[in-house]
Amino acid sequence: RAGVYAHFGSPAEAAQNAQHATSLAPKAAWALLARAAVLDELGKDAEALADYDEACRLSPKSVSARLQRCFALVNHGKDRQGLDEAEDILKNLDPTSLQGIIARAYARIRSRDIETVKAAVQDCTQAHQAAPDHEDPLRERSDAWHALAYLYEDQRKPADGAPANTLEEQAYSHATDDIKEAKERNERSPIVRVFEGSLFLSMGRGKERKKDTAAAEQYYKRAKEAFEEAKRRNPNYLFALLSLAQAESLLGDNPGAFRTCEEARGKYPNRFDAYETIANMEFGLAEKAFDANQALAAADERRRHLEKARGQFEEARKRAADSNAVRIGRRIRYVKLWEDLFEATVLYFQKDYSSSRRRLRQADQALEEFPQQKTWRDSLDRPLKRVGQ
């Protein structure tokens, strides 16, 4: 019952039921694991991990408890600890554990290291060979290939003796093949459909970065279809709803995207995710096709989107906890930096040079955290210096 309340965004009821369960059986690992899962769902990282630790202390040979702690560690950004946990399970508890192998792959996928992610592919292959009719190894291997494609694209230089873009295309091809097979194993799985849609979104963004807008649009349409199917399978699947909104936004259907987010927010009023997705869309509208030479023409519209983005991020942070709250706080600071740089640009074109300089100095405070925006700052600072001279 606590898990259901947490899943549907009712944190007070979830916490109350989880606490009641642990009060009835304070030394039972299963009760602590149930409470940890609720705390995890609510984003209370430190409390959740403490419960996972205590459950594992009480039942040190429980593969299930150790696996749950492994996934929690990875989900909370402790990839190395999660990987150590998975390897210890396989070495000392159950060397043939299918979920243990998949857990190790899950941790390796998030390493952002090409060789480590390749090892995740091998893990998933091993798991697939052990359970060829099961969808999980194929789904995770698709995710590993997806991560490799992203890393190859990010690398932008030759690797393994082949151009990075060739390796990227090969990785995406393998990812597509695996998710297709996973779908054949379990056509009714909304999770597989969300993985498929996320893959198509990435492929579309890759095409868009290469200026192939026609191909990007086709991938976005396929992503939208996958998320819609996931939603049909489970109308309350939050990630399917929020991912669908992203696809709709990328296809230019912003009214539809906001309606989908409102639907998600209506079902999960206490979850930060819906607010964060709306904030990201508002910010995307603010920065889309930004051209300093058109700063005056679009100033009011962009200003409204930035204000809405910051407001929605603030709402998300109120509902988030621990690492999620920290991450969203960083996004708020980034939006504020963008506002400062944008306003400095508008003031420059309005020939209010002293106010532009003041706003630029405000932006300087955040550039250490976001050095990627120094180019924009410098492009404005140079003409302001010339004006001063």
Secondary-structure map:
Elements: H1 2-7, H2 11-24, H3 29-41, H4 45-58, H5 63-75, H6 79-93, H7 98-109, H8 114-130, H9 135-155, H10 164-185, H11 190-209, H12 213-233, H13 238-250, H14 254-267, H15 272-287, H16 299-319, H17 322-349, H18 353-364, H19 374-388
Helix pairs in contact: 2-3, 3-4, 4-5, 5-6, 5-7, 6-7, 7-8, 7-9, 8-9, 9-10, 9-11, 10-11, 11-12, 11-13, 12-13, 13-14, 13-15, 14-15, 15-16, 16-17, 17-18, 17-19, 18-19
Short structural description:
The chain has 19 helices and no strands. With 389 residues, it is mainly alpha-helical. The chain is globular.
List its salient traits.
mainly alpha; 19 helices; 389 residues; globular; 79% helix
General description of the model:
The chain is globular, with a radius of gyration of 23 Å. The protein has 19 helices and no strands. α11 (190-209) packs parallel to α13, α16 (299-319) runs antiparallel to α17 and α18 (353-364) packs antiparallel against α19. 79% of the residues lie in helices and 0% in strands. It has 389 residues and is an all-alpha fold.
